[in-house]
Amino acid sequence: MNEKKKTLIFAVTAIALALLAFVTAPKKVTPNAFLDQGEPFFPNFTDPNEATSLEVINYDEETGEAIPFKVVFAQGKWTIPSHYDYPADGKERLAKTAAGVIALRKDDFRSDNAADQEACGVIDPIDETATALKGRGKRVTITGNNEQVLADIIIGKAVPEREGFYFVRMPGQKRIYAARVDLDISTKFNDWIEADLLKVEKNDINQVVLKDYSINERTGSVNQRDVLTLKKEGDKWVADRMSAGQEVDNSKATTLLTTLDELKIVGVRPKPAGLSNSLKKSEAGVEITTPDMLSLQSKGYYFARDGSLLSNEGEMQARTGDGVVYTLRFGEVAYGTGFEVSAGGDTVRQSPAGPAENRYLFITASFDPSQLKEPPKPANTDFLNKADSLWSDGDRRNKEIYDAHEAWRQKFTRGQMAVDELNNRFANWYYVISEESFKKLRLTRADLVKAKTS
């Protein structure tokens, strides 16, 4: 055998041995559980603006009930279905929540064992086959157009000793992950609505009228105790029928005004459609049907013989310099907490078993033109058809008068438009306010008028 053949044989043998070693060598095995580590939970969901609804389902371990909360975008507006489609101010909050869900990553695999779901708090809150009352998580579902599910995940307990990390699981899957969760997922009704209920600044209010009366619901008689009128004079408030030795407690008056400015609601109930439509047409008067009357009475509101609407815990009026007059009528007590208060049923005479007492509030707005005194009109408007360089002294005076009258007219129009806008908001709803807010607003002469300090 010549040298070339020997060399060739040795080379072939070496290659064969190398291939055999490669095939038979042990390999590094990555468990399937770790193959998706670091990947996003929802890779096809990348644009938070695609979200058109958010549903969050919590679980009440005491009652064994799942508690859903949902906001949706439909027919050009955001609403809260669980609260009678009350308008939601939710686009920005929803987009922020959606962005947080998009950012979720499968940071760390923890378990494939279904028995670990309770300890991690990731049992589906709406899983009727699960027997455990504890260990149920918060299920977050985001959908887009045509109810396409963009994201659906269960968020459980915080991961021990890993700040910002929570156990998470996708519904229908056993695998549990630890993931960094940075989500502001509020299910509080008042976090999703317009916070500024009255849209009034306390510094714009120049008069408050407090009507202290109550109604005997059995006889229909009115117990008129007092009517207190407060007016703003400079930096101080004065009250009607004060003696020389008395003054308004400005601290309490300021608290009252601040409460009006920052007034928040804790719940809503819908008014009957006929009553709502009638209230929106404020100039046409209010038409009342028997169902409307029963609805009003159930919340503590009654019509007097002269047609005026009364409430069983009195009322107050707040007037602004723009001629807008807010009337707040305090009605029946609404007992309860949580969802029972924010959306509850249509009944109010519930058992006062709990400590929380809230109040129904009926709000209307009207326009008082006497607040805006009309200035004189110009003798003529000939200057409108002249170049500025051709104006006479009389034209210039008329221009100044015209500008002042035009400013008044615009302010007058804005006041009327503001009242129409407010009544369109208020007409559909009975509001529920907290007992704390009620006590700060439901003040009497004895609360606000005191002896002068030396």
Descriptive key words:
454 residues, alpha+beta, 9-stranded antiparallel sheet, 8-stranded antiparallel sheet, 21 strands, 26% helix
Helix-strand makeup class: alpha+beta
Spatial order of strands in the largest sheet: 4-3-2-1-6-7-8-9-5
Mean pLDDT: 86
Which percent band covers the strand fraction?
25-35%
Give your account of this protein's structure.
With 454 residues, this protein is an alpha+beta fold. The protein folds into 2 domains: 34-191, no CATH class; 202-451, no CATH class. It has helices at 3-24, 91-102, 117-120, 250-261, 273-280, 290-298, 339-342, 393-426, 435-441, 445-448; strands at residues 53-60, 65-74, 77-80, 86-87, 108-111, 138-143, 149-158, 165-169, 176-180, 205-215, 222-233, 236-239, 246-248, 267-270, 301-303, 309-311, 315-320, 324-335, 357-367, 429-434, 449-451. The strands form 4 sheets. Strands 4-3-2-1-6-7-8-9-5 form a 9-stranded antiparallel beta sheet. Strands 12-11-10-17-18-19-20-14 form an 8-stranded antiparallel beta sheet. A hairpin with a 3-residue loop joins strand 17 and strand 18 (324-335). The radius of gyration is 34 Å and the shape is extended. The chain starts with a helix and ends with a strand.
